[in-house]
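ok so I'm stuck.
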Amino acid sequence: MYTFLRDGEFVQVTVEDEKVSGFVSRFGERDSDRGVFLDQFFSKASLDGKRLSFTTKPIHGTWYEFSGVISRGEAKTPDKEGYWSIQGTLKQFDLDDNKNVSSKSREVNFKSFPQNLKDAESPKD
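replied:
not stuck anymore, here's the structure
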């Protein structure tokens, strides 16, 4: 899991059998969903070497497109935030009540969540 735009939001990226899936979990920003936690699954995604791209399914008229690179982050160990990072361009699309689409683009750096290595290495009872 990786950080997203605001504290408490995240991106989950899964690669299995060379197929990429995942979702963005974020807080709604419209009057109809403000403060509600929303999961937006990827409608399409790809990983070519270290280049990642994805598009989310729209929820309440908002969706995202991302294109960037996965790389080692600044953290020294996996138990710290940012051991891995996904850097690139995130475009947010919004459909208004009149069916007009607006978009805004920004450079982002999604940082990996800390991994609890002790729990991962201990056998479960």
